Amino acid sequence: MNTALTIAGSDSSGGAGIQADIKTMISNGVYAMSAITALTAQNTTGVTGIMEAAPEFLKEQIDNIFTDIYPDAVKIGMVSSKELIHVIAESLKTYDAKNIVVDPVMVATSGAKLISDEAIALLKEELLPLACILTPNIPEAEVLSGISVKSEEDMIAAAKIISDNYHCAVLCKGGHQLNDANDLLYRNDGFKWFYGKRIDNPNTHGTGCTLSSAIASNLAKGFDLDTSVERAKAYISGALADMLNLGKGRGPMNHGFAITGEYVKTAGEVQQ
Q1: What per-residue string of b and e applies to 99-108 under the rule 16 or more CB within 10 Å gives b?
Q2: Tens digit of each residue's pLDDT (9 = 90 or more) over 49-89
């Protein structure tokens, strides 16, 4: 069985972070493992507390994974401190990790920075150059490229700058009032648009985590980059279209929408 590792924070509500990653990886047919960078106390209405992992303990988690069940792909989500970023980068180099997908979580949809300028600088210097693909949203693409992104042409220009700087592929995600569900993949000095259907679902908590984990899962299974992105886009569209509605705020998607069989039946369905 193919394997994938997520290095990210825990979301106690299960919609994003390692919980979303693990659900996504299982749903996409790979064995999921995790190294937890932080614990959060949160639900669909917001985050009330964060407890960051000690750098030495994060390293110990990663060491235990790579020395026993070597992952076929690695997804990296939000890492808030420069100490943790350094530990991850050094560990990935030590174990010659493959198929590294980085979701460079730095800027919220509102434009507010989620991590410090020092952490962003180290992310750029140590972690991003190790990636095979980065998956920034529009505000993150602006930070990484240094240009304003207001059009499709700007998305292409920003993705080219990021790809040239970090020598990897870039999936610049639409949305944020630009292109809705259309994403741009830039790689090898060329680009390809992935057109998605706009799904009218306000419950989009964890979409970034889910997309990057689905890409990592497909890379782990041996699909090429273009096909991995295409399959990941189809998966997240299905999860959103299922229209799960949980919680009082911006709720999660149904990561298990395509899981069928005896063990997902309700008591009522079994009795029929």
Answers
A1: bbbbbbbbbe
A2: 999 999 999 999 999 999 999 999 999 998 989 999 999 99
- Contact call for residues 236 and 211 (beta carbons, < 8 A): yes
Total-model pTM: 0.95
| Catalytic positions, written as ranges | 173, 204, 206-209
- Spatial separation of the C-alpha atoms in residues 173 and 214, rounded to whole Å: 14
Spatial distance between the Cα atoms of 206 and 47, rounded to a whole number of angstroms: 13
Domains of the chain: 3-271 (3.40.1190.20)
Closest by CA to 9, choosing from 80, 110, 113, 90, is 80
Sign of the C-alpha dihedral computed for residues 12, 16, 21 and 26 taken in this order: positive
- Provide the 8-state DSSP code for 250: S
Query: Which of 39, 44, 70 lies closest to 57 in space, CA to CA?
Result: 39
